[in-house]
Amino acid sequence: MRPRSLQLRAPRSSREWARYHDIRKRCLFEKYNGKGTPYYFEYDPNHPDERDPANHPLVFLCDGRVIGTIRIDIKPDGRAIFRLVAIDDPWQGRGLGTTMLYMAENYARECGATTICLNSVADAFRFYSRHGFTPTRWDGCTHNPTEIPVVKQLSDEAMQLAA
User: Tens digits of per-residue pLDDT, 34-81?
Assistant: First the structure.
């Protein structure tokens, strides 16, 4: 069934903030950096980066339900750093990740970004490659060998495709 509405925006309630942190913790931290993994560390919902005014925590809603998360950090040099991009497990495989990615690219572009940088887990690398990202080290990228730093230059064409 096709969604009636899709939206990418800041969380507006304590319930939406709880879903934001739950999806990030379950779908990313526990899956890729959980106990017993070589790069284990605890998810901190109160990390100071979440409150930095240059950083934009966003939820992705499908018909009013929070099903995905992303934080977009806007840098003065025109880079947007996409952090902890996730679609909750039951919603994967329906093209919603692609939609959220295009919406996030437009959001970054509206904030003045010309380049997107992110650290991809190996499982998501093909997804990002299909969407124009190339493996490139960038200032502030991961030193974790299980992640792949990738970059994409934004163009007006991508914005038109997402519209």
Answer: 787 777 778 999 999 999 999 999 999 999 999 999 999 999 999 999
Distance of CA 151 to the CA centre of its chain: 13
Instruction: Please report the pLDDT score of residue 31 as a whole number.
Output: 86
Of the candidates 82, 87, 25, the one whose C-alpha atom is nearest the C-alpha of residue 62 is 87
3-state secondary structure of 68: strand
CB count, 10 Å around CB of 55?
15
C-beta of residue 100 within 8 angstroms of C-beta of residue 87: yes
CB-side neighbour CA atoms (13 Å) of 95: 5
Query: Do 45 and 90 meet the contact criterion of CB atoms below 8 Å apart?
Result: no
Q: Give the Å distances, CA to CA, from 83 to 29, 48, 51, 119, 156.
A: 12, 14, 14, 8, 23
Rg (CA), the chain: 15
* Length of the chain (residues): 163
- What's the Cα-to-Cα distance from 144 to each of 15, 85, 105, 109, rounded to whole Å? 32, 17, 25, 28
